C-alpha cells in the first residue's frame, strides 16, 4: 500500500510543470496501466477520458459518469506514487457539475484535473464532425468556480482549449488560453489535431502568459521532444498509446487462441502470470500477512 498525504501529489504535479525540464505524462486507464507507466519511468499519469471510457466499453462522450470516472481515477491513484492529471472533459456539465467534480477530485488526492472548453456532451477531439466549442465567457466562469472549489491548496487546475481542434485560429487559441489563466487556471493544454506541429509552434512563439503549456502530440508524433523543449512547452502527454497497445495485443492473442482452440505457443506475446503478481505488488501483501495475519495462519492447515 502506498502512503502519501493528500497534497503531496499535487505538489509533485505542480513541480513537474515548472519551466526547466520537459515532463512526460503517460495516458493510463486503470490501476494496471498506471503501474506499468510508473515503472517505465514517466513523470506523471494522464487519466485519459478516451482510454478510461474505452476500457469500460464506453464512448468518449460523457457516457462514463463523473462519479465513475472519479472511482476509476481513485483506484489508479492508489496504484502509483506518480501524480495523476485527470481528464475531466468539459467538467461533465455546467460550472456546478464541474466544481463538484473538482472538489471531490481534490478531496480524494488526485493531483490535478483538466477541463476543456467544449459544450456538454463533449465529442472526442480526434473524431471528425462537429465539436461544439463553449464561449470563452462561459468557460471562464467554469474555471473560476472550479478554482474556488479546490479543497487542496496545491491542486492543479488545467484549462484546455479546443479552439484549434474546431478549426479556429492560433490567435483565438491564444486569446482563450490567456483568459483562462486570468480566470485561475494553473496551466494550459493547447490541443491540435493537425498532422504537423506548426500550430503548436505558432502558439508557443506568441505565448506570453506566465503559465505552463502542455501538448498532446497524438497526431504529430514525429516531432522530437527537443522541439517541444525549445518552444518552452512544459509537458507532453502520450494520451492513448498504452490502451492502443493493450487492445492490439488482446486482439491478436484472442484471435490466435480462438483459431487454434489452444493457448499454447504464446510465449513472448503474453506476460507470465508471476509478472502480473509482481506488477500488483503481491510481495507486499505476502509480507503484510506474515506481520498481521498470524491468527489466520494458526487455523489454516495448509
Ligand atoms: C484523451 O486522451 O482522452 C484526450 C486526448 O482528451 S484526445 O483523445 O486527443 O482528445
Ligand atoms: Mg479526453
Task: Give the topology.
Blueprint: H1 8-17, E1 23-28, H2 31-40, E2 44-47, H3 49-55, H4 66-78, E3 84-87, H5 95-107, E4 112-116, H6 136-149, E5 156-161, H7 170-183, E6 187-190, H8 198-206, E7 213-215, H9 225-231, E8 235-238, H10 241-260, H11 273-279, H12 282-292, H13 294-298
Helix pairs in contact: 2-4, 5-6, 6-7, 7-8
The chain binds sulfopyruvate (SPV) and magnesium ion (MG).
Sum up the structure in keywords.
302 residues, alpha/beta, 8-stranded parallel barrel, binds sulfopyruvate
Task: Describe it.
This protein has 302 residues and is an alpha/beta fold. Helices cover 46% and strands 12% of the residues. The protein has an eight-stranded parallel β-barrel, surrounded by nine helices. α2 crosses α4 and α6 (136-149) runs parallel beside α7. The protein binds sulfopyruvate and magnesium ion.
List SSEs in N-to-C order.
Answer: HEHEHHEHEHEHEHEHEHHHH
Bound molecules: sulfopyruvate, magnesium ion
Strand residue percentage: 5-15%
Broad structural category: alpha/beta
If you average the pLDDT, what whole number results? 96
Count of strand segments:
8
Lateral strand order in the biggest sheet: 1-2-3-4-5-6-7-8
Integer-rounded radius of gyration: 21 Å
Profile the largest sheet.
8 strands, parallel, barrel
- Proportion in helices: 40-55%
Give the overall shape.
Answer: globular
Gist?
By secondary structure, the protein is α/β, with parallel strands linked by helices.
Amino acid at each position: 500500500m502506498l502512503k502519501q498525504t493528500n497534497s503531496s501529489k499535487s505538489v509533485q504535479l505542480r513541480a513537474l510543470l515548472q519551466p526547466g525540464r520537459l515532463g512526460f505524462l503517460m495516458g493510463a486507464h486503470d490501476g494496471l496501466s498506471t503501474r506499468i507507466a510508473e515503472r517505465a519511468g514517466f513523470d506523471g499519469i494522464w487519466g485519459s477520458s478516451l482510454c478510461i471510457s474505452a476500457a469500460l466499453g464506453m464512448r468518449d462522450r460523457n457516457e462514463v459518469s463523473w462519479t465513475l470516472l472519479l472511482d476509476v481515477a481513485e483506484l489508479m491513484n492508489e496504484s502509483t506514487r506518480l501524480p495523476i492529471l485527470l481528464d475531466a472533459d468539459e467538467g461533465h456539465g455546467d460550472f456546478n457539475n464541474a466544481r463538484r467534480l473538482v472538489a471531490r477530485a481534490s478531496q480524494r488526492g488526485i493531483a490535478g484535473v483538466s477541463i476543456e472548453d467544449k459544450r456538454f456532451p463533449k465529442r472526442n477531439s480526434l473524431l471528425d464532425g462537429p465539436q461544439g466549442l463553449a464561449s470563452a465567457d462561459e468557460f471562464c466562469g467554469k474555471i473560476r468556480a472550479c478554482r474556488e472549489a479546490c479543497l487542496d491548496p496545491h491542486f492543479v487546475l488545467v484549462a484546455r482549449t479546443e479552439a484549434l481542434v474546431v478549426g479556429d485560429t492560433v490567435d483565438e487559441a491564444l486569446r482563450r488560453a490567456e483568459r483562462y489563466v486570468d480566470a485561475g487556471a494553473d496551466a494550459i493544454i493547447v490541443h491540435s489535431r493537425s498532422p504537423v506541429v506548426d500550430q503548436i509552434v505558432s502558439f508557443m512563439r506568441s505565448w506570453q502568459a506566465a503559465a505552463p503549456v502542455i501538448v498532446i502530440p497524438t497526431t504529430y508524433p514525429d516531432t522530437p521532444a527537443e522541439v517541444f523543449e525549445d518552444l518552452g512547452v512544459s509537458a507532453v502527454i502520450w494520451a492513448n498509446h498504452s490502451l492502443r497497445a493493450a487492445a492490439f495485443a488482446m486482439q491478436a492473442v484472442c484471435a490466435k487462441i480462438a483459431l487454434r482452440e489452444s493457448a499454447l505457443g504464446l510465449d513472448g506475446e503474453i506476460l507470465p502470470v508471476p509478472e502480473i503478481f509482481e506488477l500488483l505488488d503481491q510481495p507486499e501483501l505476502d509480507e503484510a500477512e506474515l506481520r498481521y495475519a498470524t491468527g489466520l495462519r494458526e487455523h489454516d492447515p495448509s
